[in-house]
């Protein structure tokens, strides 16, 4: 839509150490230094150990690139060995945090209840959640992708007030398209992203639904991003593998060129 600023976010997963992160963000900043990209918001989601380095670079050079984490604890502090809290991410001036990525759901048993608690923790500390939803192959084969994904949206946003929900980012990522090279067709992406927006209109209001940005994720590359972005309810992309190559990610960000 014309009214929603597209958000292109690179999910680095468990790749790039803090030195590699600095080199990568410098490349992005250099390639995006002209005015062209101002109509698109660009964010990177590096591993936790990179965030301080990225913050220093972005702050020091006044870069427009935003950054965030790939997960956050539902708790503010305490005996949760290995976890990273919302206040810690807020202190590092993170803008975004991915929540409920399919790899977290799959390898760390994150349920919609956990996702919901983390979404609330993010908002509590001024972080914008990128809440990830999407069906696996079996669900897709059975034709239940819309119902499955909407249940995740509803579960993840349970008891989240409209003042917060209006700034959530929802990433629709069909699991069968993540890291597989098998991208959803633009029509597949639109079907579910459109259904997510309709469901936000029912859960909250049509006005709120028009504000929320809905990303598509799953094997997005420079060669397929424009067709996906042309869909009316797709407002950006969450990019995994292709975001590790700075040149390729820049081409994705410049999908309108
Ligand atoms: C992701 O991890 O969010 C993702 C979409 O990965 P890929 O682009 O590699 O499919």
UniProtKB/TrEMBL annotation:
Q: Which Pfam families match?
A: TIM
Q: What is its EC number?
A: 5.3.1.1
Q: Give the record's keywords alphabetically.
A: Cytoplasm, Gluconeogenesis, Glycolysis, Isomerase
Reactions it catalyzes: D-glyceraldehyde 3-phosphate = dihydroxyacetone phosphate
Instruction: Give compartment(s).
Output: Cytoplasm
Name the pathway: Carbohydrate degradation; glycolysis; D-glyceraldehyde 3-phosphate from glycerone phosphate: step 1/1; Carbohydrate biosynthesis; gluconeogenesis
Q: What is this protein called?
A: Triosephosphate isomerase
**What lineage does the source organism belong to?**
Bacteria, Bacillati, Actinomycetota, Actinomycetes, Kitasatosporales
């Amino acid at each position: 839509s014309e009214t929603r600023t597209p958000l292109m976010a690179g999910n680095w997963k468990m790749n790039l150490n803090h030195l590699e992160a600095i080199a990568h963000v410098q490349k992005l900043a250099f390639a995006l230094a002209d005015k062209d990209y101002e109509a698109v918001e660009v964010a990177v989601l590096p591993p936790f150990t990179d965030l301080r380095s990225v913050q220093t670079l972005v702050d020091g050079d006044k870069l427009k690139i935003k950054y965030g984490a790939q997960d956050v604890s539902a708790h503010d502090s305490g005996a949760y060995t290995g976890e990273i809290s919302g206040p810690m991410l807020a202190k590092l001036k993170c803008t975004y945090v991915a929540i409920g990525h399919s790899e977290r759901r799959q390898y760390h048993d994150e349920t919609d209840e956990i996702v919901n608690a983390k979404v609330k923790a993010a908002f509590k500390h001024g972080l914008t959640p990128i809440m990830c939803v999407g069906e696996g192959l079996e669900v897709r084969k059975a034709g239940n992708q819309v119902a499955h994904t909407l249940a995740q949206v509803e579960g993840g946003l349970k008891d989240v007030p409209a003042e917060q929900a209006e700034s959530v980012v929802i990433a629709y990522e069909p699991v069968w398209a993540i890291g597989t090279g098998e991208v959803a067709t633009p029509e597949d992406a639109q079907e579910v992203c459109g259904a997510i927006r309709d469901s936000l209109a029912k859960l909250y209001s049509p006005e709120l639904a028009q504000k929320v940005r809905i990303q598509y994720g799953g094997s997005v590359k420079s060669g397929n991003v424009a067709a996906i972005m042309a869909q009316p309810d797709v407002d950006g992309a969450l990019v995994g593998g292709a975001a590790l190559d700075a040149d390729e990610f820049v081409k994705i960000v410049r999908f309108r060129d």
